[in-house]
Amino acid sequence: MRKLTAGTLNQALGLLGELLVARNHPEQHFVVCGGSSLLALGLVQRTTTQDVDILGKIEANRLVSPRPLPAWLRQAADDVRQQLDLPADWLNTQVADETLFKCGLPEGLQGRLTPREYGARLLISFISRRDQIFLKLHAAVDRDGGRHLQDLVDLAPTADELLDAARWTRTQDPSEGFLFNLRALLKHLGHDPLNAQL
């Protein structure tokens, strides 16, 4: 089973786009975050990722939840998986938690997207470095570091970027436990948050 490199990612999305045309499926426009977005835009030195994280879908110029993916799209993705020996969930919407849409994505995210066409019927818009910082900080606090923390470090956010991201994460989880862990992580990153309004 292969992990996705920048080249494999391009190949997989290209094949998926070809299948949408060959099977006469409707045009799709997805917003993608996470490791695949980092790879596609070359924002960090990371060389592989496990999957393509679909954060949202653009419909009538509005960012909406991508859930659930239609059965025909899941089938096309599975056909790509078999051809390229990819993980079973290489294309998924796990990151598209309804809470994000209820509490709000980072302001202006849609205007910072980088779109790329994969054939005539598949458009993928990758989120910006700024928005990666916001989502990676939230994930690093929420899931106790790991790959998300390393990505955050590699993105090399400034103190102001981290503070903006930290304030946004509080809209997602206002609990005292999250705040405690957020402050600890910011301090670990070399930014003492004690005097910051979070």
Please provide the ordered H/E string of secondary-structure elements.
HEHEEHEHEEHHHH
* Number of DSSP strand runs: 6
Radius of gyration: 17 Å
Q: Looking at the structure, what is the overall shape?
A: elongated
Instruction: State the share of residues found in helices, binned by percent.
Output: 40-55%
The poorly predicted ranges are none
> What can be said about the biggest beta sheet?
6 strands, mixed
Number of helices, where a helix is a run of at least 4 consecutive DSSP H or I residues: 8
Structural class: alpha/beta
What is the typical, i.e. mean, pLDDT? 93
Number of domains: 2
Instruction: Identify the quaternary structure here.
Output: single chain
β-strand amount: 5-15%
Structure, explained:
The protein has helices at residues 6-22, 34-41, 71-84, 98-103, 129-142, 146-155, 159-172, 176-188; strands at 28-33, 52-59, 62-64, 91-92, 114-117, 122-126. The chain is α/β, with parallel strands linked by helices and 198 residues long. The protein folds into two domains: 6-127, no CATH class; 130-188, no CATH class. Strands 1, 2, 3, 4, 5 and 6 form a six-stranded mixed sheet that branches.
Summarize the structure.
With 198 residues, the chain is α/β, with parallel strands linked by helices. It has helices spanning 6-22, 34-41, 71-84, 98-103, 129-142, 146-155, 159-172, 176-188, and strands spanning 28-33, 52-59, 62-64, 91-92, 114-117, 122-126.
